[in-house]
């Protein structure tokens, strides 16, 4: 912070950190919280929250991807519906 004073983390801050972590870069999360990047990463570590965007992408891409059973049966989720 510019004035050198520390501002305690509130439950609301922690909840926002949990919802934003992994969805955007650490500096963007810090900006949204009004915190420094270092403070944001330290608090995420303390709360055992991953700031990794990779984990977020893998989780969300897996939900959108066709299942292994669909691929084994030859289903193509990208097939055109035009005949």
Précis, in short:
With 83 residues, this protein is an all-alpha fold. The chain is 54% helix and 0% strand. It has a domain at 11-64.
Structural features, described:
There is one protein chain. By secondary structure, the protein is mostly helical. It has a domain of 54 residues. Helices cover 54% and strands 0% of the residues. It contains 5 helices and no strands. Helix 2 crosses helix 3. The longest helix is centred in the last third of the chain and has 12 residues. It is elongated and about 40 Å long. It starts with 10 loop residues before the first helix and ends in an 11-residue tail after the last helix.
Q: What's the total count of β strands?
A: 0
Share of helix among residues? 40-55%
Tally of helical segments: 5
Class of secondary structure makeup: mainly alpha
Radius of gyration: 19 Å
Strand content: under 5%
Give the low-pLDDT segments. none
User: What would the average pLDDT be, to the nearest integer?
Assistant: 79
Envelope shape: elongated
- Write the H/E string, N to C: HHHHH
C-alpha end-to-end distance = 61 Å
Q: Biggest β-sheet: count, sense, barrel?
A: none
Would you spell out the secondary-structure blueprint of this structure?
Elements: H1 11-20, H2 26-33, H3 37-46, H4 53-64, H5 68-72
Helix pairs in contact: 2-3
Descriptive labels:
83 residues, 0% strand, mainly alpha
